[in-house]
């Protein structure tokens, strides 16, 4: 695998070119058979209760191909917060976002749904919000010198337009990563409106475990990545904010080119967790974001020796166990995991604080440092490409 690092104004975007292997045979069940993550997460058991119907998951990413056969009918009208760069039909458009949407709510295609990617919550709806550019987008040069508030605005827009879950498979985990007031405030806004916010913990496990935002904001469910054996992926960032782990290695993903690839990253892990949250939310719509986060923590499988660590959080997310445990919860009385001035106020002797909210937030495209899923191996009708 060939990796490239492109520096933005305040962060680095980690990406990789596609490394191809000889084409595999095109069997009708070839893709589904390689989706080990579905079995690991006990999705068949969960689907006896719900498949996510009635839940909307906002995917804040590079866009989503609503015409993909594995997503047809599940994608709502979304919003483009960037307004420039590649468009539908260009190779550098919606690849990462489509992959994430497929993990969350893919329903396969073909006779009896025997082909294509099946998502964790195949009956959930996807609300696409374009907030970053693909690595191969020629407009990245323009974006590298632009600070924009696309991510913060996208979070607020999603919360205002019916998102029950907000998936953020992105993040700034560069050495210069730091919290942005507008992003943080947008996350707290979404939580208070009842939207569960899930983000990838970061892919900095091999490069210093730098803090990643938005994963580190209060109330966010931060997903780390494990392999099929439940072992922490070497690239997965280890930090205090890790909530739960999810599959993030050898993950089959759908692409707008109608082929399928294997990839890795905490992006994928976040998408799996968002799918799990969609299932819990569908089964128990009255639960608050705080309750759902606590449920995932309390019911995670393969917990670390001391109950939690920075590598895997509380363990592997288990939506079936969370749904069962939720039966014993009373939805009333808990609030979203945001914070108020009670905890972060100016103090009794300080002057009244001025509004210091930044007029800009997450960097667009190259500046966001955030597309954390790295496409790796073609697994369906493979042929060589020059560019990721």
What attributes does this structure have?
7-stranded parallel β-sheet; single chain; 11 helices; 3-stranded antiparallel β-sheet; alpha/beta; 17% strand; globular; 388 residues; Rossmann fold
Please give a structural write-up.
The longest helix is centred in the last third of the chain and has 18 residues, at about 265-285. Helices cover about 25% and strands about 15% of the residues. It has a single domain (about 5-335, about 360-380), classed as Rossmann fold, CATH 3.40.50.200. It has about 400 residues and is an alpha/beta fold. The protein contains eleven helices and 14 strands. It starts with a strand and ends in a 10-residue tail after the last strand. The chain has helices spanning about 30-35, 35-40, 45, 95-105, 140-145, 150-160, 180-190, 265-285, 290-300, 320-325, 340-345; strands at about 5, 10-15, 55-60, 80, 105-110, 115-120, 125-130, 165-170, 195-200, 220-225, 240-245, 250-255, 260-265, 375-380. Helix 4 runs parallel beside helix 8 (about 265-285) and helix 8 packs parallel to helix 10.
In short:
The protein has 388 residues and is an alpha/beta fold. The chain has 11 helices and 14 strands.
Write out the strand line-up for the largest beta sheet, numbering strands in chain order. Answer: 4-7-3-8-9-10-11
Total strands: the figure is: 14
The level 1 CATH classification is Alpha Beta
Mean pLDDT reading: 82
| N- to C-terminal distance | 12 Å
CATH superfamily: Peptidase S8/S53 domain
Shape: globular
Structural class: alpha/beta
């Amino acid at each position: 695998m060939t990796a490239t690092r492109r520096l933005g104004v305040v962060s680095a975007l980690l990406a990789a070119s596609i490394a191809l292997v000889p084409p595999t045979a095109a069997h009708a069940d070839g893709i589904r058979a390689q989706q080990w993550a579905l079995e690991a997460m006990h999705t068949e058991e969960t689907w006896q209760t719900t498949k996510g119907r009635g839940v909307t998951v906002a995917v804040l990413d590079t866009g989503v191909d609503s015409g993909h056969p594995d997503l047809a009918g599940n994608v709502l009208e979304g919003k483009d917060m960037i307004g420039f760069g590649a468009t539908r039909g260009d190779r550098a458009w919606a690849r990462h976002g489509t992959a994430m949407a497929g993990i969350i709510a893919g329903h396969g295609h073909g006779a009896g749904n025997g082909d294509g990617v099946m998502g964790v919550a195949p009956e959930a709806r996807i609300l696409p919000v374009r907030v970053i550019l693909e690595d191969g987008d020629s407009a990245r040069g323009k974006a590298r010198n632009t600070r924009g508030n696309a991510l913060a605005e996208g979070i607020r827009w999603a919360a205002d337009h019916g998102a029950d879950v907000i998936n953020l498979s992105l993040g700034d985990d560069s050495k210069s990563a730091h919290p942005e007031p507008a992003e943080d405030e947008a996350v707290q806004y979404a939580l208070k409106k009842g939207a569960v916010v899930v983000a990838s913990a970061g892919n900095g496990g091999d490069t210093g475990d730098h803090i990643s935002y938005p994963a580190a904001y209060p109330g966010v469910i931060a997903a780390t990545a494990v392999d099929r054996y439940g072992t922490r992926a070497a690239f997965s960032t280890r930090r205090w904010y890790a909530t739960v782990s999810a599959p993030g290695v050898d993950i089959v993903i759908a692409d707008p080119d109608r082929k399928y690839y294997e990839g890795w990253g905490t992006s994928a892990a976040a998408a799996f967790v968002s799918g799990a949250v969609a299932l819990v939310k569908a089964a128990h719509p009255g639960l608050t974001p705080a309750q759902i986060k606590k449920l995932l923590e309390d019911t995670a499988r393969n917990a670390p020796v001391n109950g939690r660590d920075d590598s895997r959080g509380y363990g592997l997310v288990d939506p079936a166990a969370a749904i069962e445990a939720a039966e014993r919860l009373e939805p009333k009385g808990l609030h979203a995991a945001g914070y108020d001035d009670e905890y972060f106020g100016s103090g009794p002797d300080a002057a009244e604080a001025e509004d210091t909210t930044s007029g800009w937030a997450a960097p667009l495209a190259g500046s966001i440092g955030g597309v954390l899923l790295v496409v790796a191996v073609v697994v369906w009708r493979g042929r060589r490409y020059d560019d990721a």
